[in-house]
Amino acid sequence: MSRHVQAAGKAHSQRALRVGELVRHAVSEILARGDVHDPVIETHLITVPEVRMSPDLRLATVYVMPLGGTDEKDVLAALERNKRYLRGEVAHRVNLKFAPDIRFRVDERFEEAERIERLLRSPEVKRDLDRSHADSPPIDLDPDSRKAK
Questions:
Q1: Phi/psi-derived region of residue 57, left when phi > 0, alpha when psi is between -120 and 50, beta in every other case
Q2: What are the distances in angstroms from CA 121 to CA 70, 116, 117, 125, 134?
């Protein structure tokens, strides 16, 4: 078995993480400079919080989020229209044997974090947390208080 093949669920290799970060910087720079001449992309500020590379470094999944989370579908469509240009620019900026194919996805981490926050603030969870704190003894966070006993 090749040492480069990863089992499902394993973390990405250090090289894939490093290349992903280089691709993220390249795509971010291209979008920030306005090098892509598309009316949708030109009128939106787009952040690139993460790029995940496949283990063989031939596929880059670029997670994007338009500022304010508006017009996500329009922005994704515009990025898809300009995928060839972006791939070529990334190939010039990142020194790899092969230019990775690029696919774009909306970064949903912010929405997921908000969903968890709403859940934690719900009355049911608050009630359960209050009940569990009432049943357990208080936690002593001061390690020096134990020495005095």
A1: left
A2: 25, 9, 6, 7, 18
Please give the C-alpha separations between residue 6 and each of 9, 21, 55, 88, in angstroms, as whole numbers: 8, 20, 7, 28
For residue 96 the two structure tokens come to: 């790899």
pLDDT band at 2 (very low <50, low <70, confident <90, very high): very low
Give the per-residue pLDDT at 91: 93
Q: How confident is the model over 127-143, as pLDDT tens digits?
A: 777 776 666 666 665 66
Domains and CATH numbers, the chain: 14-107 (3.30.300.20)
Closest CA to 51 of 86, 81, 78: 86
